[in-house]
Amino acid sequence: MKLVTAIIRPEKLDDVRGSLESYGVQGLTVSQASGYGRQRGHTEVYRGAEYTVDLLQKVRVEILVANEWANDIVDVLVATANTGHAGDGKVWLIDVEEAVRVRTGERGEAAI
Q1: Alpha-carbon dihedral sign for residues 27, 62, 79, 59
Q2: Which domain holds residue 55?
Q3: For 77-92, what is the mean pLDDT?
Q4: Which residues carry this modification: O-UMP-tyrosine (predicted)?
Q5: How far is 41 from 56, CA to CA, in rounded Å?
Q6: Are 36 and 56 in contact (CB under 8 A)?
């Protein structure tokens, strides 16, 4: 099993979720995140005053999938979240040794 984690722009969440559901993903976890990458934030002007935004608002999406689905899920995430601009995000995979469904006690891929 793999844990696919993506950090994406908040405005792309609905598109990403729809694409993942169309692909067949049955569950995911979404949480708010903030951070920066190479762009190191940006400068904005509000009511005439200029200020620096160091931490940008992002969304973290996590999906537990079977090994054979992992690369396809990454492709769906990248294709849907891409705007072509800096700050589109990152996607990575982590090996998962075990998963257990709390309600039933099922283990492994049956728990997905």
Answers
A1: positive
A2: 2-110
A3: 93
A4: 51
A5: 6
A6: yes
Q: Which residues pair with 93 in a beta bridge?
A: 4
Confidence of residue 76 (pLDDT cuts 50, 70, 90): very high
Cα(3)–Cα(60) distance, rounded to whole angstroms? 12
For the chain, what is the mean pLDDT?
90
42 pLDDT band, cuts 50/70/90, is low
Structure tokens at 78: 């990248």
| Burial environment of residue 73 by CB neighbours within 10 A (0 to 12, 13 to 18, 19 or more) | buried
| Residue 28 to residue 37: CA distance in whole angstroms | 24
CATH number at residue 16: 3.30.70.120
Q: What is the total count of domains within the chain?
A: 1
Element (H or E) spanning 21, and its range?
helix 13-23
Q: What is the pTM of this model?
A: 0.83
Q: What distance in Å separates the CA atoms of residue 49 and residue 95, rounded to the nearest whole number?
A: 47
3-state secondary structure of 106: coil
